[in-house]
Design a protein that fits this description.
The chain is mostly helical. The protein folds into two domains: about 140 residues, no CATH class; about 150 residues. About 85% of the residues lie in helices and about 0% in strands. α7 crosses α8. The longest helix has about 55 residues. It is elongated and about 100 Å long. The two termini are about 30 Å apart. Keywords: Cell membrane, Membrane, Transmembrane, Transmembrane helix, Transport. This is AI-2E family transporter. Belongs to the autoinducer-2 exporter (AI-2E) (TC 2.A.86) family.
Length: about 350
Amino acid sequence: MIDTEKGRLELSRFTIDMAVRLALIAGVVYVSLLLLRPVAPLLLWSVILAVAVFPLYALLRRRAGMRPWLAATLLSILLLVLLVTPVILLSTSAIETLEAYGHMVLEGNRVLPAPPVSVRSWPLVGERLHDFWLAAANDSRSFLTAHVTQITSFGRFVGSIAAGVAFEVLQFAAAIIIAGVLLAYSDRLSVTVTGLAGRIADARGRHFVEIAGSTIRNVSQGVIGVALLQAALLGLGMLVAGVPFAGALTFVCLVLAIVQVGPNIVMVPVIIWAWFTMPLLTAAIFTVYTAPLLLLDNVLRPILMARGLQTPMPVILAGVICGTLAGGLIGLFVGPVVLAVFYDLLTTWMAAGPHEEKKA
């Protein structure tokens, strides 16, 4: 039929029609993605949060008999409280600490303790560091006046970080509200997403949806949950011990724990500082309390992240690290999902290979 003139004409017409349809579909998809690009991180965070807390949402509906909108509203309020409360506590602690140090400088009191004599013996920088520290401890007002340019630059840097953190907090708050809406309509949305995945890849597509949901929940528990617990316990210890800037240090520990760097690079200098400035018994108790907490993530994270998943722990951990490096905090969740799906595809393809050869 194709060899005839009519057949070639119909084939040409079909090809042109298909090309026009594909071009129109591609154009609509491109414009839609372009319009959604400014709010894509917000929507992605909303989906991640909704998937992460869905088991708790289902528990509220099943055990408490709540309606969907009531359970979603209650969870949204709880998440907002969990988000806003640490921010308020950290901000209050930082403001109070800075205000106290400001009063000490204005009154001419010593802000920093005198450096230990042993600092002079440190290689390369010991002598210079000791003199610098001693000048700052003896006359803080003159020291600040002499370095006002550097302090101003550092203040601008800290201000830009604070502005970025404030924006992220607002974005998280908006994502929590949208996640509540998604949870309220989760029954319809789950049917739609599962149907779409099944339309694309049949049963394998629905399996990928299950893998993505389980991976997001495990990563949220193993990374975010453990980081929050670890940072909270470290912050509590610093507050009780009277460590300056405990709120800011706690926030830094939280961020470092989430991005898989760990709070050790902050807490080890704090422990060393405690032995130089605190009474011996207080420093010893603070060290005994803090040291096990620095290993908490190494114990709990593998257990929580690998629970209930067929994907090996090294694959999930590689996705967490590589995703964080490539996409920041969102990549923390997207990376493990992508690698988990890739691993499942790879194992399925390898398992099907010998059977195909036998059939041939």
